[in-house]
Amino acid sequence: MSEGLVHSLKAVASLCGADSGFIIDIESNGKAKVYSTHFLPENSTKYISDIFKENKSPKENELLKKYNENRSEKDKAASLLLKRLSESDSRNLILILVSKEKNSFKNLTDKKLDDAVSLLMYHINKPMLLLEKHIRETTDNIDATIYSSDINGTEYYFVSNSIEKLLGYPSQYIYENRLAILRSILPEDFKKFRDFIAKVKAGESAVAEYRILNREKDIRYIRHSGTPIIEDGKTIRVVGMLSDITSEKAAMEKLHRSEELLSMLMKTTNSLIFTLNRSGYFIDVNPKGAQELGYNINELVGNHFLEFINEENRGEIAVAFQKILKSDEIVTFEAVITDRFGKSVVYEIQARSVFENNEITGMLGMGRDVTTKKKDKTKLNELNTKLTEANRIIAIERDRAKHQITLLEELNKLKNDFISNVSHELRTPLASIVGFAETISSDEDLPKEMVTEFSNIILTEGKRLARLINDILDFSKLESDKENLSLSSFDVIKLLYELKDSYSKQASDKGLNLTSELPEAEIIIKADRDRIFKAFSNLISNAIKFTPKDGRITIIAQDFLKEVEVMISDTGIGIPEEERPKLFQKFSKISNNKSQQPGAGFGLATVKQIVDLHKGLIQVKSEVNKGSTFIVRLPKSRK
Fold it and tell me: Which residues contact 314 (CB under 8 A, 6 or more apart)?
């Protein structure tokens, strides 16, 4: 008995002028529980309990009658409260007030009696109201509907408010319309509900899934669970839960369709679909995938994946497996699989780890045959390589053609310059020869001294013309390579002394100092002596030509292990830096305002050709107004 109810009972007793009181709670089986204030005599409590124990299922009026017949005169006044309380809503509760004094209730007014009953009923019902509120608040926050019903499912004692979300009707509507839930069940599913009720009536917990039509005429899937409440071996009511599983059903249907599609894919696709355990052994393989390799499923399942992989590819596969088992990412790799007939088949495989209870238990993979694709790719790469090479060759040839065109254009320009130069160089001596010859021929009285002078001029110009023609012919022969070198062993030092002697007078006549710094020992080389003589002769001739009076020309030679180095150095006008790149080009003449010397531009070009034919090297060092040094290196023996 709660403390609030005890205080309430005392207050009622005091209000009614009673010494004490107690409440009798009559249960459905006829038994009674007695709640009293602490000053209620123990024999009274026992006496009242004995009365109710003798009546297993009494009616309230019969209990009251029996009690009134057995109680003493002094507390008959309690019938006033008994009558009023028996007319209240709590018909299973009886209030007894006890007074030691007779007629103690005679001045009890109806208002006092009403106040006493109201106060007592508030404290009796308050815990139940709080409990009901707590249950209601709890069940309303659950998506599923909590209910309590009779054993036939036709009358509901309690339904949580979430029923409105399920059916579209509030819980009050369910209380007032006993068959509302039954009528919402689709006819074709009603048998499932009947089987559910039959099982619950038999005292077993049951679960049924069926469809209902809600207020909006939408079909919803329901999972109905129920537990029987049994007293004295008999089911008296059912408590349970109604859950909306429409979304769950849709998800299951989607999953079922996906499983069907996967099953169809596994059976029909030519791709290799497989599952492996953590160690890499086959757990399952699709039939068509195994068939493509010439195997049946049983020949693969239970065997290790690497047993079917080419040896050179196994290391790469093992690394891929380790990567798969360390993450949940999809890993792509190539596997060269050996089929039943020993043929290597290249598969491109995508695989990922398989989880069970948040642990990686194996791998799932799908591979497609890319052997033909790989071959085509190899061929394509080869073609691309060839195409790249062809493009490179075309580009080279294009550049070469451009270069040749440029060269031809330059040669054409040089040719025109050459023709102009040669024409000038030929006309000049010819004009002198013809002019002086005509003078001598036409004037018989010409003094002998003048005839001699004119004859010398004709001779000099004739020699000059002969040298020019010889230079042109020699250069032409060298360029066309029609003349082979006439090789012989000779002393290059002796050759240089010969050149010095042959040009000493010409240098002296111009006021130049021609000197030499030559070793005493012989330096024997194997070369075409005439061509080498020609090359050094051209260099010395040029030095004399471009060195002003009082200048110096030096011939130097040095002996090295495998080659000889000859330098022709002068203190002439020098060569501008911008002119040096075309120095050894044929038909080229150096532009220098200070010195315009006659010549067709073959001298240095001829020297370069002769040196090149002997596998030698020619270089030039020059400074304007200070002079030039031409360096020629020739091998001692020509391989």
Answer: 306
Task: Give the pLDDT confidence of 445-464 residue by residue, as tens digits.
Answer: 788 888 888 888 888 778 77
DSSP label at residue 562: S
What does the buried/exposed string (b/e) look like for 568-580 if buried means 16 or more CB atoms within 10 Å of the residue's CB? Answer: bbbbbbbbeeebe
Q: What are phi and psi of 161, to 5 degrees?
A: -65, -15
Q: What is the DSSP string of 346-400?
A: EEEEEEEEEEETTEEEEEEEEEEE-HHHHHHHHHHHHHHHHHHHHHHHHHHHHHH
* Closest by CA position to 557, among listed 530, 520, 531: 520
Would you state the structure tokens that stand for residue 72, as one six-digit string? 């003493």
Give me the amino acid identity at 254. Answer: K
What is the DSSP-derived secondary structure letter of residue 329? S
From residue 417, alpha-carbon distances to 420, 589, 614 in Å are: 5, 9, 29
What is the sign, positive or negative, of the torsion defined by CA atoms of 503, 505, 506, 510? positive
Q: Which amino acid is at 169?
A: Y
The label of the residue with tokens 């001779």 reads 459
Is the pLDDT score of 2 beyond 80? no
- Do residues 172 and 159 lie in contact, with contact meaning Cβ atoms separated by under 8 Å? no
466-to-209, 428, 460, 532 alpha-carbon distances in Å? 126, 13, 10, 20
**Residue 553, helix vs strand vs coil:** strand
Angle between helices 448-480 and 371-442 (to 10 degrees): 170
- Distance (Å, rounded) from C-alpha 499 to C-alpha 529? 12
- Asked if 201 and 174 touch (Cβ cutoff 8 Å), the reply is no
Residue partners of 184: CB distance under 8 A and separation at least 6: 167, 212, 213, 214
Which residues lie below 8 Å from residue 182, measured CB to CB, with a gap of 6+? 153, 154, 193
Which has more confidence, 272 or 441?
Answer: 272
What count of residues does the chain have? 639
DSSP one-letter code for 88: S
How many of the other CB atoms lie within 10 Å of CB of 405?
10
pLDDT tens column, 550-559: 999 999 999 9
Note the pTM of the prediction, 2 decimals. Answer: 0.36
Distance set, CA 384 to CA 374, 377, 381, 394, 631 (Å): 15, 10, 5, 15, 49
Q: Tell the burial category of 318 from Cβ atoms under 10 Å away from its Cβ (0-12, 13-18, 19+).
A: middle
Q: By CB neighbour count within 10 A (0-12 exposed, 13-18 middle, 19+ buried), where does 302 fall?
A: exposed
**AA identity, residue 537:** S
Pick from 128, 138, 134, 182: nearest CA to 162: 138
Q: What is the DSSP letter of 270?
A: S
Tell me the C-alpha distance between 184 and 191, whole Å: 14
Q: Which two tokens stand for residue 318?
A: 């093992």
Q: Comparing C-alpha atoms, which of 287, 377, 281, 384 is closest to residue 334?
A: 377
Cα separations (Å) of 579 from 475, 536, 585, 608, 618?
21, 21, 11, 16, 16
Element (H, E) at 455: helix 448-480
Question: Among 274, 258, 208, which residue's Cα sits nearest to residue 238?
Answer: 208
Residue 1's pLDDT band, with cuts at 50, 70 and 90, is very low
Q: Are 297 and 285 in contact (CB under 8 A)?
A: yes
Q: Which residue has the higher pLDDT, 631 or 141?
A: 631
The three-class DSSP label of residue 203 is coil
Inter-residue contact 586 to 607 (CB < 8 Å): no
Q: What angle do CA 231, 237, 242 make, to 5 degrees?
A: 140
